[in-house]
């Protein structure tokens, strides 16, 4: 009886070699959109954490799109931006960012695009 079980398993394993190979397809655009939304949500959460969950900041972020949400409007000074960059590096496992590269990030959308560019 044991021999027949082994024989059956061998037959099944060898039959799998004749199955067609399914090519990998590119992820649909929705996955990209979901990743972007997830990145945006994470960036916004870091902003709220940096501001001590300030209700004014929360209200501003909820009413403002990523492309319009400027750090200057959030009241971020240079020290806030340094703390924000450190938290971004930890959250997204980013390499050290130069001061010049980070200075060019003026909106939440700029940060999301920057992170997605690195993560590609």
Automatic annotation (TrEMBL):
It comes from the Eukaryota. The lineage of its organism: Eukaryota, Sar, Stramenopiles, Ochrophyta, Eustigmatophyceae. Residues 1-17 form the signal peptide. Keywords: Signal. Residues 34-119 form the Carrier domain. PROSITE patterns: CARRIER. This is Plastid acyl carrier protein. Pfam families: PP-binding.
């Amino acid at each position: 009886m044991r021999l027949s079980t082994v024989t059956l398993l061998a037959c099944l394993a060898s039959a799998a070699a004749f199955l067609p190979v399914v090519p990998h397809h590119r992820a649909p655009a929705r996955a990209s959109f979901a990743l972007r939304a997830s990145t945006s949500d994470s960036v916004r959460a870091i902003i709220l954490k940096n501001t001590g969950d300030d209700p004014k900041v929360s209200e501003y972020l909820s009413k403002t799109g990523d492309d319009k949400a400027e750090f200057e409007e959030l009241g971020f000074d240079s020290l806030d931006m340094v703390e924000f960059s450190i938290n971004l590096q930890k959250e997204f496992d980013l390499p050290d960012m130069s001061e010049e590269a980070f200075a060019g990030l003026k909106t939440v959308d700029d940060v999301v695009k920057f992170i997605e560019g690195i993560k590609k």
